[in-house]
Design brief:
The chain has 197 residues and is mainly alpha-helical. Helix content is 61%, strand content 4%. It is built from 6 helices and 2 strands; from the N terminus they run ααββαααα. Helix 2 packs across helix 4.
Amino acid sequence: LYLSERVNNDLNIDLTDSSPILAMPNQALALSLLNSTTTGAAITMIQEARLLRKEIEMLEESLLSSRSRSEEKEMVRIDRLLDELLVLYTSDDNQTQILHDVDQVFERLKEGRYSPAEVTKIFRRICDISPQTRSNCSPLMTLLVEGVGKMDSLDIESNPNKRWTQKLENRFRKKLFQLEYGLDVEEVDDEQSRGNG
């Protein structure tokens, strides 16, 4: 018993420790094994983190690409709606356009079942194409706002376009007024752009 205690004291081994590594009689070997295991685990974790980061980057790129394609498709759709609603004729070189008149736009809004969301997107698209203000509207914008005003004047009961559930003219004119003076404005009420588009 005395010899056993002396050996334990000389090697500084705690026999009460349940760790198999620390219970080894050779401390240098134990520390070497511990360091080797820790380093290996750290390297493995770094490699796994790099793989995970790469997967995340690939997923982000895929999402951005998908979002970009979706936005392009939506822009094409809104451009088509804009042309159908406002433009009677466009020359092959896109230099000449003949527009519908207000009554024709009104009839198209009424019979074509345009939704407030779609018309709001057309409004924003015209703003993207060229700067718009209350006193400096393009013919397209003027035509749109006046046609929308005639739609707003219809009673809901007498309007065959049952999708037209909101008043847009005042919102559009307010937005143009705000653009006139460069006010800090919110987007034209987004409520009408939710739901069916």
